[in-house]
Amino acid sequence: MLQPKKVKYRKTFRGKNRGKAMRGCEIVFGEYGLRALNLGEISARQIEAARKKITYATKREGKYWIKIFPHKPLTQKPLGVKMGSGKGAIQEYVAVIKPGFILFEIGGVSEEMAKAAMQKAAAKLSVKTEFVKKK
Hints:
The protein is α+β, with helices and mostly antiparallel strands and 135 residues long. It contains two helices and seven strands, in the order ββαββββαβ.
């Protein structure tokens, strides 16, 4: 699974997730893409599950690009621990997603195959998505 090799600060604040994506809104590498339609966080497990589905659906033809990376650590305290006593241990890493951001790109395959692969990958993600073509 994806996670950062080295981080400056081990645990981060929750922060606010709002607004639209200003960068990463256009297809750069491939011919087809999967665009996020709402705000959210995608875990490293979801990214890996979507990657496997794309690989399986395309039968390893063409090429695909993952344009998201889980940089943000999420913490969780163990069950039954009282309030106070600091922040919990890191549970997982997530990628923060804004609407309009291209999550995955694919190239070198037919449009039907790309659409099928992206639909299967989208079923594994926790944000609403749409299939887009390069202009």
